[in-house]
Amino acid sequence: MNNFFTTLTFLFITYFSVSQSYESKIDSIVAISYNQNEPGISILVAKEGESIYSKAFGKSNLELNTPLETNSVFQIGSITKQFTAISILMLEEQGKLSVEDKIGKYIPEYAEIGKDITIHHLLNHTSGIKNRTPVGDKGFISKTNMSPTELIAYFKDEPLEFKPGERFKYSNAGYILLGRIIEIVSGQPYSDFIEQNIFDKIGMKNSSCGDPKQGIPNPTTGYIIEQNDFVKSDDMNLSLAYSAGAILSTTEDLLKWQNALLSNTLLKASSIKQAMTPTLLNSGKRVPYGYGFRFSKLGNSPVIAHTGSTKGFTSIALFLPKEKLYITALTNCNCKNVNNVAKQVAELFVSIPDDKITEAKHNQPERKSINVPSEILSDYTGTYEVKPNVNLTIGLDNTNQLYLLAPGQTKKVELFAETQNHFFVKIVDAEITFNKNEANNVISLTMNQSGRKIIAKKN
Q: Residue ranges of the Beta-lactamase-related domain (predicted)?
């Protein structure tokens, strides 16, 4: 339900609020999913390496009623994998390992079963090692502290699912092995290596790896949904996530990370290109994942991204090289679609120019509308609940024109009748049907956009 409505509302914002600043447009997108009285979101948008939008919405702790801030610290989950991958490449540049090394050279447990697995296979999830970790198993004790050796012992006897390089299958276990390799080669605990060679070097002062030895400033509490209410998630000992997902950070620090990658502060350009290149399987098939980076497209714009999730936290960081745009969004509840929010924000910067929109509208076959008596139209007016505390308004102006007003918007969207109860929108592929009960009273409306439907009950 939320995905459809936010997409529809976004289209209204895009087409009708041209005079709005990017700030107010982003505010509108975020506010659809996050309000000030619930667990929230910290979101940052940067253009050419400079922050152009940085805000936080919602609470960092519901019980203490503390608001989120732009420097609030979140668990970033699997975005950690980028740091692990880059650390491996840093060690390769130092001549201490090669991504073509067999992992049995460093992990004795894999000398036999992993005789054909290279570090390269771990980095791009093509090793065949099952994604089996304590965190992934039901009933695991989330506060348990486990060493890297104990984590590896948890899955080391599992048979491979396929031959190395034959398939792509996401594996946290593979990235746990990478963390252990970093420790063996560097002679440092994984967390120390990350903090000294990355955080300290590029000024990520509000970031840490694993459970901090001392309290962190501006911490956030994670939440889940149970019986339609927000409940604190279990505190997870981050040793369990280790090099696959144990980093805590802020949106501001993640921008420093992104800028360091693009400026070759940590690695040569050739190594960064290696990390950000799609994988080739043994068959020659291309897989949209590199070393800790996923690849996709938004329209015609390439996207390089990764997401993350731990108990009570979700995150996303995405980069659009064509637009030189970086977006990172961190949340303290795993109950909402932060990926969809980030995508809609990105679409603001890759949207079709106004002249192309006009051209496209003129090239579309015109749908014919009919006149409907005002007494019928007036029955449709009122507010319709899309979700709790989010309503859209159907109104009728003095020219007998029915319109829709989306939450938080001031521009009216005209609705044109094809039948007495079925209406369409001219500027987007959207339709609305008004539904009646047996007593002929309007009880709801059904919105349909590109085949996706949602029913909103009339208040």
A: 35-336
